[in-house]
Design goal:
This protein has one domain. It starts with 14 loop residues before the first strand and ends with a strand. The protein has a seven-stranded mixed sheet with strand order 1-2-10-5-12-4-3. A three-stranded antiparallel sheet has the order 9-6-11, with no helix packed on it. It has six helices and twelve strands. The protein has helices at about 20-25, 45-50, 65-70, 75-90, 155-165, 175-180, and strands spanning about 15-20, 35-40, 60, 100, 130-140, 145, 150, 190, 195-200, 205-210, 220, 235. The protein has about 240 residues and is α+β, with helices and mostly antiparallel strands. About 25% of the residues lie in helices and about 20% in strands.
């Protein structure tokens, strides 16, 4: 069986590739699978869409009206139609997708023991059953990490000891609440043999979230490093 174009490591069993949007939304997570990928090669010029927004150091959210108002060539207009269609698909499910042009995300500048920005490998969490949908259209794509190649930061003895030192007190329920309140328990580091993989451009993903009663572990992922001078990302997330 050939590997998907987003270079998933051979033998990786957490991701299932699907062939349609309907299959993406109706397939249930289970048997260890915690990420579904509708692999697509999209027509259109998404870089032209990004280029029409002008240079900005801030994240720009694109609503439907702004997308339709862009002055674009045929390939750019095709890209806009795909962007609108993907959002409409998700809205039909009762979701609220957000399309952002992202030159870079804010970094966790506090200098804490566990960085909690989106450049750190992390999982999404919720109090009720839900999933995360995302698609990278331009720029660098999101990255994933298989669960057995990731370790929670708070499970590393040296990291936990340092967090406890800053917290003061003992490793009890109050300390564990502190870890949760600050999202330290949602962040991971790769083990030495880890091989992160790219989500690829154009692929629409549905990934598992950490919620009570989830049948599978949450999908570990992160935003890619974006250096100054690199093109912005165009990302849909819901």
């Amino acid at each position: 069986m050939s590997l998907p174009s987003f270079n998933l490591p051979r033998g990786y069993s957490r991701v299932r590739v699907v062939k349609s949007f309907d299959e993406l939304v109706t397939t249930r997570f289970g048997d260890g699978v915690n990420a579904l990928c509708w692999e697509r090669t999209l027509a259109g010029d998404f870089s032209e869409v990004v280029g029409q927004l002008g240079a900005s150091e801030e994240i720009v959210t694109l609503d439907d009206a702004r997308l339709r108002a862009l002055s674009l060539g045929p390939a750019g207009k095709t890209a806009v139609e795909i962007l609108l269609e993907d959002q409409e698909r998700l809205r039909a499910l009762g979701l609220a997708p957000v399309l952002d042009c992202i030159p870079r995300y804010p970094r966790d500048e506090d200098g804490g023991v566990v960085p909690t920005d989106v450049y750190s490998f992390h999982v999404d969490s919720a109090s009720v059953e839900t999933d995360t949908y995302l698609c990278s259209y331009a720029g660098a794509a999101s990255e994933g990490l298989r669960n057995d190649e990731a370790q929670r930061c708070v499970d590393r003895p040296e990291t936990r000891a340092e967090l406890l030192k800053h917290f003061g007190g003992s490793d009890n329920g109050e300390f564990r609440d502190h870890l949760k309140e600050n999202c330290y328990d949602l962040h991971y580091v790769p083990i030495s043999e880890a091989r992160p993989f790219s989500f690829g451009l154009g692929n629409l993903w549905r990934i598992a979230v950490d919620y009570p009663g989830s049948p599978v572990p949450p999908c570990v992922h992160r935003a890619p490093e974006t250096l100054r001078g690199q093109p912005p990302r165009l990302l849909l997330i819901s």
